[in-house]
Design goal:
The complex is a heterodimer.
Chain A (H helix, E strand, L loop, with lengths): L8 H9 L5 H19 L2 E4 L1 H16 L11 E5 L26 H8 L3 E6 L33 H8 L5 E6 L5 H7 L2 E4 L19 E6 L2 H11 L17 H9 L7 E5 L9 H16 L3 E5 L7 H16 L20 H12 L2 H13 L6 H24 L2 E5 L15 H5 L6 H6 L3 E9 L2 E8 L5 H15 L8
Parallel strand pairs in A: 2-3, 2-4, 7-8, 7-9
Antiparallel strand pairs in A: 1-3, 4-6, 5-6, 5-10, 9-11, 10-11
Helix pairs in contact in A: 2-3, 7-8, 8-16, 10-12, 10-13
Chain B lengths: L5 H10 L6 H18 L34 H4 L6 E2 L2 E2 L7 H4 L1
Antiparallel strand pairs in B: 1-2
Helix pairs in contact in B: 1-2
Classes of the chains: A alpha/beta, B mainly alpha.
Chain lengths: 491, 101
């Protein structure tokens, strides 16, 4: 048997289904890999060895009993620590939830279990998913497998690094402003933000509820589609869940892999291919655009003038929602409590608990949000940002009357060195410049590896209309068929 | 001109129930000022007659079937609580002493 950790999820599932390997063998191979490299990568906050082996044994028993297995049965998956996992520690990268073991599963986790996937553990992230480098994790940074001195992106840097380091073939992330796509881009992996409402938020620790979107991460577009199909779909427990069938993303990925994009119109977002991106990123992007044209796609330039206002609008809307959502961390129902000496009041204990439990970026955003929602500032900040959100949505709608999908580089730069931006919070925000508009609009976006710059991966982003997730999978799979996948140096 | 003063940051910290240190106040005042000046750019967008968007999914009044489904036991619901008593979350005192007496 060749190295199971180098295989795609589709290959692993076929071997398990065919009895050529067992889910236990697959799981052990990945646990061994984690043991061998994760002290250097630090993709995982918690490895659930026993739970993973139990789940794998259950799959093998079901197969032995002649039961029909799902398309990803026996495939290991790493889950971002933002999703509640019954009995398994869930920290959201924060000290305020250290040691918390949720009494229930998030809907997505429940669907992963029902599909027979094997959860290896929980991956590192910027605290409460606020960040673009995973350096804001309270448990130390994750290192990019391409260059351990560089960031793996964020907030879902753990999930992306686990894929690039061959610690897991599949992972789950959550994307509020780019937290799946940006780590995907800088680690040479595939990251998908589904349509908002296409994947359930039940059991996802809330950061910005009108933007948070869980989604699949993988090393190939087809693997991402297979995982998408397992986790997506209406959930009565999430009132923002869209009661419509999931677009057939697997069929779209297979269609794209044939390498034919005849009749597909793609629009390059003019505002995102100027001086905002590094020359090396632009060179890789331009080559990828040429490849898409060779596959038959018609390429046009599309101006979306309001996209340049997306970043400031986002950094008002997301902190406003976070300041409200994070009020639940009050030292009463779960997690940390500090200073309860019998004399201090509830309010004092609450303030000491939050001061001790939250890191600096979370505090900054709570205070920015509190400011933006204050009477006297509300109209000028939060209210105005919501109007800009309308204008951005109109730009998307107008663009999709002309083209089937929009494309841009996923990020302005390749992975930057650890420590380069932590002293300047606004510089950190700029890493999400190209991914944020999609979140404000609510449509789907995918980052697919398109080339290298200075030996580091560059991602191309495809953005599609709401509930047309299949369209971006087709384009991404076609590009992948032309440029191939990218393998980091051996760890 | 600074968008926000150190005193305003201290006020925000109180509203946010964050017992920040004096040293943090110094750091945050500068950082929040940079961030607020940058995000204030949204004010330059002409949008007076534009309706706000709070949410991208056009769904309203979402109901589900009124059927009984399994839920957490009291023990499970209290399992993560810092302090519990008689199947309830136990909290520090909520009234000041002069009010309580």
């Amino acid at each position: 048997m060749s190295d199971l950790t180098r295989m795609t999820a589709a290959e692993i599932a076929a071997l398990v289904a065919g009895g050529e390997t067992s889910a236990v063998e697959v799981t052990r191979a990945h646990l061994d890999r984690i043991a061998a490299v994760d002290d250097r990568v630090h993709a995982f906050l918690h490895v659930d060895t026993d739970g993973a082996l139990d789940a794998a044994r259950a799959v093998d028993e079901r197969r032995a009993a002649g039961e029909e297995l799902g398309p990803l049965a026996g495939v290991p998956v790493a889950v971002k620590d933002v999703l509640a996992t019954r009995g398994v520690p869930t920290t959201v990268g924060s000290k305020i939830l250290e040691g918390w073991r949720p009494p229930y599963d998030a809907t997505i986790v429940q669907r992963l279990r029902e599909a027979g996937t094997v959860m290896l553990g929980k991956t590192n992230m910027d605290e409460f998913a606020m960040g673009s480098s995973t350096e804001y994790s309270a448990y130390g940074p994750t290192h990019n497998p391409w260059d351990l001195s560089r960031i793996p992106g964020g907030s879902g840097g753990g999930s992306a690094a686990a894929l690039a380091a061959y610690e897991a073939p599949l992972a789950i992330g959550s994307d509020t402003g780019g937290s799946i796509r940006q780590p995907g881009a800088v680690t040479g992996t595939v990251g998908v933000k589904p349509t908002y409402g296409g994947t359930s938020r039940y059991g996802l620790v809330a950061f910005s509820s009108s933007l948070d979107t869980p989604g699949p991460c993988a090393r190939t577009v087809l693997d991402a589609a297979l995982l998408h199909q397992v986790i997506a779909g209406h959930d009565p427990r999430d009132s923002t869940s869209i009661p419509q069938p999931v677009p057939d993303v697997v069929a779209a990925a297979k269609l794209g892999a044939t390498g034919d994009l005849t009749g597909v119109r793609l629009g390059i977002v003019s505002e995102f291919v100027g001086e905002g991106a590094e020359p090396g990123v632009m060179a890789a992007f331009r080559e990828a655009v040429d490849a898409l044209a060779k596959l038959g796609a018609e390429i046009v330039d599309v101006s979306c003038p309001t996209f340049v206002h997306a970043l400031p609008a986002y950094y008002l809307i997301a902190p406003s929602e976070c300041s409200s959502n994070l009020a639940r961390f009050d030292g009463v129902r779960f997690g940390l409590r500090v200073g309860d000496d019998g004399n201090r009041s509830l309010e004092e204990v609450m303030s000491l608990t939050r001061e001790a439990g939250f890191g600096p970026e979370v505090k900054r955003r709570i205070m920015i949000g509190t400011y933006a929602l204050s009477s006297g500032y509300y109209d000028a900040y939060y209210g105005q940002a919501q109007k800009v959100r309308t204008l951005i949505t109109r730009d998307f709608t107008a663009a999709f009357e002309r083209v089937d999908a929009l494309i841009s580089p996923t990020t302005p730069s390749v992975a930057f060195p650890i420590g380069a931006r932590t002293a300047d919070p606004y510089q950190m925000y700029l890493a999400d410049l190209f991914t944020i508009p999609t979140n404000l609009y609510g449509g789907p976006g995918i980052s697919v590896p398109c080339g290298l710059s200075e030996g580091l991966p560059v991602g191309l982003q495809v953005m599609a209309p709401t509930m047309a997730d299949d369209r971006m999978y087709r384009v991404a799979a076609a590009l992948e068929s032309a440029v191939g996948t990218f393998t980091p140096p051996a760890l | 001109m600074a968008a926000i003063s150190r005193e305003e940051v201290a006020h925000l910290a109180r509203l946010s129930r964050l017992a920040v240190t004096e040293e943090e106040l110094d750091t945050f005042a500068g950082q929040l000022d940079v961030i607020l000046q940058a995000v204030a750019q949204v004010g330059e967008v002409a949008a007076a007659d534009i309706p706000p968007t709070s949410h991208s999914v056009p769904l309203t009044n979402i109901f589900r079937e009124d059927v009984v489904t399994p839920c957490l036991t009291p023990q499970e619901a209290l399992s993560g609580a810092p302090d519990a008593e008689d199947q309830r979350f136990r909290v520090p005192r909520i009234l000041s002493e002069d009010v309580a007496s």
